[in-house]
Amino acid sequence: MSSEQSAKRRVLLKLSGDCFSGSSPSGLDAEAISAIADELADAAEAGVEVAVVVGGGNIIRGSSLARRIGVIKPTTADYMGMLATVVNALALQDAVEREGVETRVLTAIRMEEVAEPYIRRRAARHLEKGRVVILAAGIGSPCVTTDTAAALRAVELGASMLLKATRVDGVYSDDPERNPHAVRYEHVTYEQVLQQRLSVMDATAISMAREHQLPILVFSFRRPGNIRRALLGERIGTLVSEGELEPAAELS
C-alpha cells in the first residue's frame, strides 16, 4: 500500500437488518436502501475506504427461528440467517452502483455465481481501489453473530473504527425504548460495556475490539445523514474505547 493509500480513512460499518426494512418490521424497503446507498456513495467519493457488514434480521433472525419453528436445528437456522444477509448485500450493491460507485460483495460462504469469496487480501485491495466492499454471510460459521463478524473483519482489514448503526442514538444505561429515564452516554469503555452489560454488541465482539484497541461508534441510522456523518468522521452517538464514562450533555 502506498503512503497516500495508507493515509486514507478506512472504516467498517455494521448495518443491522433493520436498516433495510424502513418503517416496516421486515422485508426490503427501496427508499431505505436507496438512502443508505446515497450516504455510502458520498463517503466513498470523499475518499473514505468503506467496508460494510450486513445483518439479515429483516428477513430471518437465525437466533429466534429455531425456537419459533421447532423442526429447524439452531445451526441450520444460523445458516439460513447467513443467507439472508446475502440478499441484503446484493440489494445494497445494486443501490450503491446506481449512485455511480463501484462495489464488491464478498461472502464467507462460497457462492461464486453471485459474489466473490471473502479473502482478506482481495477485500483490502478492493478498498484501496475505492470500491465499497459489502461483506455477507457472517464468518461462515453458525453460533457467531454479525456483530462478532464485524469486529473480526474490522481488525483483519485494518479499519480505524467500527461504526454500528442501530435503532437508537447511542449507548444507554438501560433500554431507552422501555425506560424513558435511561441515560445516554457520550463515551463508555469496553470494560464498562462488559461489566454493566450495556446494549452495544455481544461480549465476544467487545472483547475483540478491546484486545485490538478498535474504537466503536454507536449511532442511529434513523436520522437522515447520520451514516454519512459517521463515515466522514463526525462525532455522533456514543464512542466505545478506553477512558472514562460520561453522560452526554445533549443528544446528537
Question: Can you describe what's shown?
Answer:
The protein has one domain: Acetylglutamate kinase-like (Carbamate kinase, 3-Layer(aba) Sandwich). The protein contains nine helices and eleven strands. Strands 1, 2, 3, 4, 5, 6, 7, 8, 9, 10 and 11 form an eleven-stranded mixed beta sheet that branches. Helix 2 links the parallel strand 1 and strand 2. Helix 3 crosses helix 4. The longest helix has 25 residues. The N terminus and C terminus are likely disordered.
Assembly status: single chain
Number of domains: 1
Average pLDDT works out at 91
Total of DSSP H or I helical runs spanning 4+ residues: 9
Here the CATH topology equals Carbamate kinase
- The SSE string, one letter per element, is HEHEHHEEHEHEEEHHEHEE
Q: Give the full name of the CATH homologous superfamily.
A: Acetylglutamate kinase-like
Shape: globular
Number of strands: 11
Gyration radius, in Å? 17 Å
CATH architecture level-2 label: 3-Layer(aba) Sandwich
Whole-Å distance between the termini? Answer: 35 Å
Structural class by SSE content? alpha/beta
Name of the level-1 CATH class: Alpha Beta
Tell me about the largest β-sheet: 11 strands, mixed
Helix content: 25-40%
Low-confidence stretches: 1-6, 248-252
